[in-house]
Every structure is written in structure tokens, then in C-alpha cells.
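Researcher: Next entry in the queue.
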Amino acid sequence: MKNKEGESVFNSFLKWFRKFAVITGDVHHPLSNDYYDLNEHLFAEEYVEIIGSYNVCCTLFVTGKEILLQSEFFKKFAFKNNVELGGHTFNAFKHKAFHIMYYALTGSLYGPLLYQRKDILRTFRAFERLGIKIISWRTHSLAGDHITYKLLANYGTKVVSDKRLCVFAPWFEIGNLLHVPITSPSDTIIRPNKDNSWWKEMFFNWLEMQISNEMPIVFLLHPKRMKMLDDFKTFERTIQILLDNKYKFIRIMDFIKYVPKAFNLEL
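Model: Structure for this entry, 267 residues:
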């Protein structure tokens, strides 16, 4: 795809989004009786407080079930300008055996059309109870597929963030549904009460390289992983480094505002 000047979408994006940072995190309802699983909403609160203290912004993708379980808690964030709440499936693939079996048969982890439609609509309705219309979406386990994106586009979602790439290279999935990939290293291998120093070293080496090239960065930093890593010290250090290097922070939904300027596209 090219814009009116014949410039590639990728180069056009790099020109506009150089030194942009997008901080995202995923928040789930309790998926086990583990301390960190039981308290994801509390870690999300610490995460948001840190975001506010640095006067930056973030997007939290939250399961519909967690929205219902902690509705009073998430109401506090619902209309904050610096926090976007996005959809993250309803129950995070609770019935794992079904999803694994369906994946083995079809290559789709999320499930068939009827299941996905029900799950997505349940998520939308949970958010609507807080007065929130879902603009941005991330499928649990980054497992969205063509069925997911067609449904989301039909229901008015504008941005999805379901893939991980080494470089910032967004694309349009279906129609005007924009796909913004994650570019940061995975933090899911961080474990509590373990020596995670190697991950921090790897992460900051990677961050230095991104900043030296003034690359736009889309982070996925889970609140519970940042808590178990070092009680958010790495999270705060990351924000401070980005600020020191004059990075601009935006939410996932803000791409809607910037994309027409970046592309100058005839959509």
C-alpha cells in the first residue's frame, strides 16, 4: 500500500512515529490461586499510579470478566485521559482443552465463529456497563485470527494489537481496522522469586538500540510481571529513559488520530 505521494506505508509510519512510545499491559481476572494471578487489578492500580506520576499515558487490555468482577475499581480509570481500557477477550480461554483441541484441528486457538462472536460480544457488554466503547483490542495469547478481525471491524473496533514484530510496521487488517504490532521483548518468562537479572540486561540493551535509532516502540509490559520482576523499578526506569530521550507517549487508540496525517491515504 502506498500513500498519495507513492511512499510506502512502512516508511511513512517511521517518518511520523519516530520517537513515539506506546505502553500497554494486559490485565486478567484470576486465572489461578497464585498470589500474582489473584491480584492483577491491584498491580494495575500501581501501574497506573506510576504512569500518572510521570505524566505519561498507557493502554490496559482487560478481560471482560475482570471488568465485571472489579467494576468499581475500573470505573476509576474509565474516563482518565491518560489511561485507555481495551478489550482482551471475556474469560482468557478458560476452557483450555477446548481451545487446544480446536487449534490442533483448525490452526485457530480462539475458536470457531459462533464462539468468538459470543466471547467478543460478552466483552463489549461488560465494558458498556462502565460506559466504555471498546476502540482497541488485544486477543488473549495474541491469538486473534481472520474471524476475530472481521468481527471486531463489524463491531466498530478501530485498532488491534495481536502480533509481535521486531520493527514497528503497522498494517490495515480488514478495511480501516489498523493492526499495531508489539515490538518489545516478551516479559512472560519473568518468574517470581527467581533471578531475572538476565532479562533486565537483555531488555535494556534492546531499549538502548531502539532509542539510538529513534525507533517507535510498542511495549507489552504486564503489570503483574513488572511487580514480580522488581516491584516496578524496571518499569519506572524505562519511562524515565524514554522521557530523557524526548520520546512522545501515546495510547493505542491515538493511532486513529495520527494515521490519516501519517499516511495521507485515500481509504
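Model: DSSP finds twelve helices and nine strands in the chain.
Researcher: Noted, moving on.
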